[in-house]
Amino acid sequence: MASKNINSKQGFTIIEVVLVLAIAGLIFLMVFVALPALQRSQRDTQRRNDMSRVDTSLVQYQTNNSTKSNNLPDVTIAVSWTGTETIENCGTNQSCIFIRDYMNSGSSENNKVNEFQDPDGKPYSLVITPNWDVYGAETASYSPAADADLGDITSKLEVKNGKGTITGNDPFSAYVIYIVPGGRCDGEYVIKSQKRHFAILYRLEGAGVYCIDDQ
Fold first, then answer.
1. Tens digit of each residue's pLDDT (9 = 90 or more) over 44-91
2. pTM of the shown model
3. In sequence order, what E strands does 11-134 have?
């Protein structure tokens, strides 16, 4: 009687190999698709935290400047830096002063660069609009991006039918924070409120506009 080789093993079939490769490819594809979305979500979470810092700092600014109109910095233009320039000499530029004294760590030091930056590494631009009443009742727009040397990038705060939001051809890449005196949040929109209040709007990377107010 012929003896059997008990050590002989059957190899993988082509179908089994293809199946394993297909499963591995599917896992890789899922990670490839999900990872960028997760990273965007993490960056947007940091942006929301940054807007909360702005909100808290503006309340502190109001406390320290109780004699000012609306108790907010008097600025209507965007201010941004390359990240290497210093903000030692702000002069009378209120948005520069606000970022230097309230948003920078160790801001009392001279020659301090602008540390208030988007998670992308680009400095935020700060715009404090005129009071809501200046806009009038129905439609208005405010576009500071042309002052920020951003080329064809535009970011606008548009108010229509009593609601304001951020628009433009690439509103996120402008990195503009809008502060609206006399406004409060209604979801992603800003609507009219009492004069001393304010709302903060910032365009998120994932989708939509984040709005936070002091109320």
1. 999 999 999 999 999 988 888 876 656 777 655 545 544 455 666 777
2. 0.76
3. 125-128
Whether 53 and 124 have beta carbons less than 8 Å apart is answered as: no
Write the pLDDT tens digit of every residue in 103-149: 886 545 545 677 788 998 888 888 888 776 555 444 566 666 655 55
Three-state DSSP state, 211: strand
On whether the CB atoms of residues 168 and 127 are closer than 8 A, the answer is no
Domains in the chain: boundaries: 31-213
Q: Please, are residues 126 and 111 in contact by the beta-carbon 8 Å criterion?
A: no
Paired sense of beta strands 183-186 and 140-142, if any? unpaired
Give the β-pairing of 140-142 and 156-160. Answer: antiparallel
